[in-house]
Structures are given as structure tokens and as C-alpha cells.
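Backbone-to-sequence.
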């Protein structure tokens, strides 16, 4: 079992203990005023409510912690089970909150009834009534001082619980930020290697482009030189033919042998050009 699962199990035990304590406080509040000591129990009621409110605050904190831990469980089934438990805890919390409210209403009714009985007894006169009034005044003063100290301690504890919740929220935020930074770092490393490979491919493509340009330029120059050579040869043959024709027309070459020799020379020249091509 991993650390998260162990933390969830410990949280369940803590929840059960806190619920048991809260139920005891609710029962004490509900029984408040039933013993006939209306004034004393009325002074004790804020202390009991303070303890019950502390339990409710602890339960709210545990709901938040369980909701946070449920998202970190290793398997999807455990995550769904944890989220379902969160919903169950929310319903149980609402029932306990409603039970505390009903217990306070019952306690107020009991205290009101007990106070009415005490008032009737005190107004009855006699030595017993005088002694009871003195005892009530002494107990009321002591109870008031104790309640003041208890309330101060309760407020201090509530502030500590709030600070713990705030610290837990801050730690959760820090953990989430750390995971995001780690993910960003891994993505950056992947992109950096990809950029390096891309840079190498671009360098290779640039070199290949330069080589292709050089090959094309050299090929074009060779082709142009070949064309010029062929054209120059063709122009020379045509010039020779014009000269022979002009000489025949002018009568400079009267015999047929000369004409045959010229034609033969022309054919030889044409064959030489074809061989060169």
C-alpha cells in the first residue's frame, strides 16, 4: 500500500473519532437543562457549542484533505471510491450539523423550563432560597470566568485549524506547480533534441542545395558550349556551300570535276560534323 492509500486510511480513522466526539457533544447539548440547574447549564452551553463547532471545522478540513488525496490514488477504481466517500462524508456532515441545530433548540427549551422552576423556587422565600441564591451567584461567577477562558482557547484552536488548512492548501498548490514545472522541463528537453535534429537537417539541405546549383550551372555551361560549337560548325558548312554555288553561277568553275570535288568536300565536311556530334 502506497503513502497516499495509508494517508486515506488514517484520515478515515480520524473521521470516525471526530464524528464520535461530535455525537457526544450533541448528546450533551441536547441533555443540557434536564438536570434542573438551568443557570449553570445555560452558562455551559456556549462551551459545549464551541467544542461541537471545533469538531465540525475538523470534519470540513478532513473533507478537503480526502478530496485532495482521492485524486492522487494509484488506480482509477480507488479514485472513484475516494470520491464516493467524499460525497458520503458530505451527507454525514449535513446530518450532524442538523442534529447540532436540533440539540440546541432542545437545550434552549430545557434551560428555559429549568430557569422558570428556579425562579419560582427563589421567589418562594425562606432560608433555602437565600442559600440557593448565594450559591448561584458564586457558581455563576466561576462559570463565567471558566467560560471566558474556554472561549479564548476555542478561538485560538480555531485559528490554528484555519492556519493548518491554509498551509495544506499552499502545499497542494506547490506540489501541483512542481509537477507542472517537471512536465514543462521534460517537454523542453524533447523539443530541444527535436530542434537539434531539425537544425542538422536544414544544414544538410542547404549543402545539398548549393551542390545542386553548382551541378546545374556546370551542366548548363557545357550545354551552351556544345550548342555554340555545333552552330559554328553548321555556319561554316553553309558558308562553303554558298561560295561554291556563287562560283558555279559566275563561271569560275566551268568543269564538272570541280563541281564534283566541291560536293565531295562538302559531304566530307558534313560527315565530320556528324561524327563530332
Amino acid at each position: 500500500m502506497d503513502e497516499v492509500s495509508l494517508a486515506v486510511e488514517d484520515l478515515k480513522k480520524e473521521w470516525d473519532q471526530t464524528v464520535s466526539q461530535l455525537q457526544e457533544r450533541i448528546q450533551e447539548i441536547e441533555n443540557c437543562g434536564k438536570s434542573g440547574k438551568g443557570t449553570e447549564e445555560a452558562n455551559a452551553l456556549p462551551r459545549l457549542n464551541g467544542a461541537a463547532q471545533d469538531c465540525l471545522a475538523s470534519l470540513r478540513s478532513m473533507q478537503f484533505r480526502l478530496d485532495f488525496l482521492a485524486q492522487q490514488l494509484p488506480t482509477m477504481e480507488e479514485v472513484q471510491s475516494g470520491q464516493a466517500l467524499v460525497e458520503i462524508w458530505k451527507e454525514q456532515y449535513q446530518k450532524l450539523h442538523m442534529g447540532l441545530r436540533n440539540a440546541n433548540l432542545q437545550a434552549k427549551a430545557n434551560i428555559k423550563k429549568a430557569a422558570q422552576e428556579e425562579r419560582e423556587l427563589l421567589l418562594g422565600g425562606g432560608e433555602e432560597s437565600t442559600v440557593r441564591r448565594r450559591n448561584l451567584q458564586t457558581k455563576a461567577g466561576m462559570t463565567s470566568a471558566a467560560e471566558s477562558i474556554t472561549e479564548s482557547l476555542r478561538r485560538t484552536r480555531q485559528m490554528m485549524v484555519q492556519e493548518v488548512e491554509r498551509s495544506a492548501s499552499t502545499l497542494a498548490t506547490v506540489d501541483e506547480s512542481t509537477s507542472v514545472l517537471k512536465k514543462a522541463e521534460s517537454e523542453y528537453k524533447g523539443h530541444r533534441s527535436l530542434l537539434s535534429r531539425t537544425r542538422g537537417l536544414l544544414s544538410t539541405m542547404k549543402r545539398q542545395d548549393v551542390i545542386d546549383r553548382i551541378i546545374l550551372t556546370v551542366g548548363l555551361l557545357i550545354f551552351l558550349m556544345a550548342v555554340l560549337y555545333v552552330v559554328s560548325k553548321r555556319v561554316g558548312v553553309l558558308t562553303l556551300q554558298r561560295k561554291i554555288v556563287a562560283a558555279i553561277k559566275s563561271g569560275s568553275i566551268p568543269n564538272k570535276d570541280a563541281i564534283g570535288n566541291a560536293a565531295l568536300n562538302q559531304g566530307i565536311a558534313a560527315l565530320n560534323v556528324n561524327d563530332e556530334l
